[in-house]
Amino acid sequence: MKKGVFSVVLLAMFVVGCASSVGAETGTTGGDTAGRSSTRSSNRVYKIGDTGPAGGIIFFDMGFYMDGWRYLEAAPQDFHMKVRWGQGSLRGTDTILGSGKKNTELIISEFGKETLGAAQVGKRDATKYRGYDDWFLPSRDELNIMYQNRTIIGGFNSGWYWSSSCTGNSTYAWGQSFSNGDQGFPYGYRGETVIGNANSVRVIRQF
User: Phi and psi for 60 in degrees, rounded to 5?
Assistant: First the structure.
């Protein structure tokens, strides 16, 4: 091989090597599609049942990063006795996977962070546990995934647990029985001032 050609080949190999190195450091892959973010704080891959960064239990893995998160981590225990859902009527919450955090932010924005509602109490008590302040009350669908993995997470009672999701008319808040998996609001009627009955709370976080 002539010297000039050999130099060009070496230069090309160097450029490709640098590009591969950059991709590895940022976590990008050629297979990522629009809407999937590979940006992450750690390269660790978690499995369902692993202990998460905040000391909770990993109970959901989306398989890829979207909107800055991939995993859901449940607090390892109920940090408070049963509480009522909250005060007043509330519109704008959602029920789907990934909406619990925004629901909780809406609840706290509407009713304040110092009230004794399910979202506020759960978040405050879990924050005291390991110092993480990004815990939130799960949405209806997130709560159902918790129920499906209740044995792996552990520490649940057989009663009803609150979600952060209100129904369409904002008069009721969704809950779930951890005895038989029923979702509904037989014990969750919200009057004009407070939720009628007190239910259990288990907060989660996403990362």
Answer: -150, 135
Closest CA to 85 of 125, 119, 123: 119
With a cut of 50, say whether residue 18 has pLDDT above it: no
Longest dimension (CA), the chain: 86
What is the C-alpha R_g of the chain? 22
Give the residue-averaged pLDDT of 39-43.
59
Tally Cβ neighbours within 10 Å of residue 53. Answer: 16
CA 178, CA 140: separation in Å to the nearest integer?
13
pLDDT of residue 74: 98
Residue 42, pLDDT score: 67
Nearest-angstrom CA–CA distance, 138 and 147:
11
Q: How many whole angstroms separate alpha carbon 167 and alpha carbon 182? A: 15
